[in-house]
Amino acid sequence: MAGHDARDLPLHQRRALLEELAKEWQPPLSLSPTTTDPDEVARWFDELPDTGVEGLVINVGP
Q1: What does each C-alpha distance from 34 to 4, 5, 22, 29 come to in angstroms?
Q2: CA 2, CA 56: separation in Å to the nearest integer?
Q3: Per-residue confidence of the chain (62 residues) as pLDDT tens digits?
C-alpha cells in the first residue's frame, strides 16, 4: 500500500497495514500493544505508567 493514503481506512485495516510494515522493524522500533479485553485495558491503565508509558489511546468506535 506504499504511496497510498490510508487515513480514510477503518482503524482495523490501518492497523493490519502497520503490522505488515512492522514485520521488518528491528529494536528499538516496535508496535504498541492492542487489545479488546477490558480487563487487560484496566491493568495497562494501572501498570504501564510505572514503565514510562505516558498514556493510552482508546478507540470506542464500532
Answers
A1: 24, 23, 14, 16
A2: 27
A3: 678 899 999 988 999 999 999 999 999 998 888 888 889 989 998 998 898 888 888 777 66
C-alpha cell at 51: 514503565
Whole-angstrom Cα distance, residue 21 to residue 36? 22
Q: How would DSSP label each residue in 4-45?
A: S--TTS-HHHHHHHHHHHHTT--TT--PPP----HHHHHHHH
Vertex 29: Cα angle to 14 and 6 (nearest 5)? 15
For the whole model, what pTM was predicted? 0.67
